[in-house]
Amino acid sequence: MKKNVKGFIGLFAGIAAFVLIGIALFALTNPISGTTLALHGGFNVIIALVGAVLGIVAIVFGVMSRKDADKKGPRKAGVIVGVFAIIIAMMSAGVCTLTKTIADYANNVPGNALSQMDNGNRAEMDKMIEQLRLQYPAEK
């Protein structure tokens, strides 16, 4: 019996999507100035979205592999893993985007959404960032 190559491609694409999602969530790449802390950056958002694309690839190859019923290998796994990968990747991209916005505001990056809010709403963010700088000062 022949191997179901499309099924394996779908399954491995889904697994790769989860690896990229893990990297996006746990590799903090945007340091906050004046502290030893870092949050998510643009790299994390892009990696999460690449994970979503790999989830789509997993679904496509999983569906294509179901047509090869005479071949041995995974048929449904790529579709199932791909669906979960897309859902989790989109949620992680959202989380990474939110924390990137907070880090950009703390680093005084011009043009981010938080810096365009009125002063009353920004006061709480400013207090939070000042507390972070006092609790986790940058090493000298």
Q: What does this protein look like?
A:
The chain is mainly alpha-helical. 66% of the residues lie in helices and 3% in strands. The chain is built from four helices and two strands, in the order H-E-E-H-H-H. Strands 1-2 form a two-stranded antiparallel ribbon. The radius of gyration is 21 Å and the shape is elongated. The model has no long low-confidence stretch (mean pLDDT 89).
Taking the alpha carbons of the first and last residues, their distance comes to 65 Å
Main beta-sheet strand count, sense and barrel state: 2 strands, antiparallel
Beta fraction of the residues?
A: under 5%
Content-based structural category = mainly alpha
Strand order of the largest sheet: 1-2
pLDDT < 50 stretches: none
What's the gyration radius in Å?
21 Å
Rough shape?
Answer: elongated
Find the count of extended strands (DSSP E, 2+ residues): 2
Number of helices, where a helix is a run of at least 4 consecutive DSSP H or I residues: 4
**SSE string:** HEEHHH
Mean pLDDT: 89
Work out the helicity level: 55-70%
